[in-house]
Design brief:
Pfam families: DnaJ. By secondary structure, the protein is mainly α. Among the domains are: 110 residues, Helix Hairpins (Orthogonal Bundle); 97 residues, no CATH class. Helix 3 runs antiparallel to helix 5, helix 6 runs antiparallel to helix 7 and helix 9 crosses helix 11.
């Protein structure tokens, strides 16, 4: 009796487990995608595509409307189901997830995760998006730097000190005389003035060394090349740091001028471009005062803070501001009687 009962119940358990694998809202819902297309689980891509084309022609809403017979609503539902089954089975990764769901119906939440992770995943390769974004930022960065550099040159061309020097150099090289040629090449005063201005700006570009935020842009400074050269710079830094430890910490050698300026810049918490923009006499003062020694730098820093406090105390604008803060500032409530 028990054996007969098991033979009767076992097929029901298998059918219930098979039905439990088909989750409503996932893939083909309560329908088996293979049964929808009428193919077996061993069917290849060509067989699946052929079955889809046949069913799509048979249940396409436009064809059903012309031929009659099947209702339009039923044809639309069937056509949508057939299209969904084809989308699931034509992709190898999605088909693999679907087969796993059929074979492991008990992993209910895992099936939901795999299904929606694939549906919500970006269609475009993330690496391509990152590369395009970095390139766009690099192009914008480069042209922005060029704009800042040209603004600096245009400003320097209006400063008498640099303009007079540039005009003298242009006269010595005979560039301004070429701009005033007569005869067939004679031009209007506006064209001559514009050409002379360009000559002056070009001389300023070639003679002056702008550092800091307005320096001449270099291709190696943009983001794209920094990322490409990051491994090289990292290796160079490791080598440099090991040499520093070996020469100055282990062997006890004295610092050279370059190493001393590096330590001073480190104590001042300035970037390389900021430190390079300082005047040469300022760097000489730092070296004379031996600011690469921590104790000397602390004394220098204290002096600078005291000097700044004195300047602010003697500044008339700062005095007016303190007086305003004391009498009429945001911390004081007053009533004005008109």
């Amino acid at each position: 009796i028990q054996e007969g009962w098991l033979l009767l119940v076992l097929p029901l358990l298998l059918l219930s487990g098979r039905a439990g694998a088909l989750v409503k809202g996932l893939y083909c819902g309560s329908h088996n995608c293979y049964d929808v297309l009428g193919v077996s689980r061993k069917a290849g891509k060509a067989e699946i595509a052929r079955a889809y084309r046949q069913l799509a022609r048979r249940h396409h809403p436009d064809l059903v409307r012309r031929a009659g017979g099947e209702s339009l609503e039923s044809a639309q539902e069937t056509f949508l189901l057939v299209a969904t089954a084809y989308e699931v089975l034509k992709d190898e990764e999605t088909r693999k997830d679907y087969d796993y769901m059929l074979d492991h119906p008990e992993e209910y939440y895992s099936h939901y995760y795999h299904y929606y992770s694939r549906r919500l995943a970006p269609k475009v390769d993330v690496r391509i998006v990152i590369i395009v974004t970095v390139c766009a930022i690099s192009v914008f960065q480069f042209f922005s730097w060029w704009s800042s550099y040209n603004e600096a040159i245009n400003y320097l061309a209006t400063v008498p000190k640099y303009r007079i020097q540039a005009i003298e150099i242009a006269k010595q090289q005979g560039l301004l005389n070429k701009a005033k040629e007569k005869g067939k090449n004679r031009r209007s005063k506006e064209e001559i003035r514009e050409e002379e201005e360009n000559i002056i700006k070009n001389i300023i570009k070639s003679k002056i060394d702008i550092k800091g935020g307005y320096q001449k842009p270099k291709v190696g400074d943009i983001l794209l090349f920094k990322i490409i050269l990051a491994p090289y710079h990292l290796c160079a830094y490791v080598v440099w740091y090991c040499r520093w430890i070996y020469h100055f910490n282990i062997k006890g050698q004295k610092y050279g001028e370059e190493e001393r300026l590096y330590l001073i810049r480190k104590y001042m918490k300035m970037s390389e471009s900021q430190f390079d923009s300082l005047e040469d006499h300022q760097k000489e003062t730092f070296l004379k005062r031996k600011l690469w020694i921590k104790e000397n730098y602390e004394v220098y820093k204290q002096e600078q803070e005291e000097e700044l406090k004195k300047k602010m105390a003697n500044d008339s604008r700062w005095k007016r501001y303190r007086r305003w803060m004391k009498n009429e500032g945001p911390g004081r409530l007053t009533f004005v009687d008109d």
